[in-house]
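A quick aside before the break. I want you to see a complete sequence-to-structure record at least once, exactly as it would be stored in a machine-readable document. Don't worry about memorizing anything.
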Amino acid sequence: MGTFLVTAKMSPELAARIEASVTGRASTPMRRRLASMARAAVALVLVWAITSVVASERRTKRDFENARNALLNTVRAEAASITDEDRQAPVRMETWLVRLAGPYEGDFVATNVTRSILERPAVYVRGVREAFGSGERAAAAAHESVKDSFLVCLLDPPSARTEKELLAKGRIALGGGARVEEATPNARRTDDARAALPFLEPAFAQSIETAVDAPQVATLRTRFEKAPVAQAKQAMRAELLIAVLDEADSSTGPTEIDGERAHDVRITITDLRTSQVLVRMKRHVDPAWISAEHRTQYSAVLDSCALAFDVREALRK
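That is the input. The structure line, written in tokens, reads:
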């Protein structure tokens, strides 16, 4: 399409420049240059995008490998810090529990035993005696055992054997958590020795080595961080086994709402280092002495705390 600004008298060059200026069309060489520049710009953008993707993938892979190696190093270090003897500790404890649940061998307190032994590193378990008939059953029973009012009152005793003092100290165990740990810092449950072992075995390290992505490593890290590794080490290296085995109910008396009833209880303290029994006692507990105000709800707590108080009194200062 022409323009009225161009006349027949103009030179062809001038006419072309005016027409290009008015219509906005560049000359053929200019269009080629612009097209070439556009292609170059697109190529640069593509190169930048590809480079960014590659760099991001490398960074992701590097972060994944760093996280995997860090977790693997931590797990291997923890595993290397326990010995074969430590690993066998749960079996030794369960062997003792099976023996202690057998025929009663009579009351006994070693001549050199004083209350100071209760300050030594210990593991604790309580359960019905019949539940410890074999190693496998002992392990299952130990898994259900918790730090209770007997252990709290044994290691952090009440000031007197009155119902008020026994209840104040014994109720600490009902809340669990930090207050129980504060009262029993040198004792762990026997089950703690076994609970973290799967995370210290070669199979768990192998699962980290074969992890394929960051989420899988994160999951393994969370599982490991929740494992009671520190408690396990303390339990594996315990010097004493404190076992409280409740006999089956042989009385015709009532059972309280909290499960307490008149029955015999075996209390044993064993030196795991020397494989010697230091303390062996059988005592009868009966909630009949407890006031009606507390008997229904707190009879088990009060009987257990009173029993622990009596055990301490039986040991020389």
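Two observations worth writing down. The chain has two domains: 12-59, 81-314. The CA atoms of residues 108 and 280 lie 5 Å apart. We'll return to this after the break.
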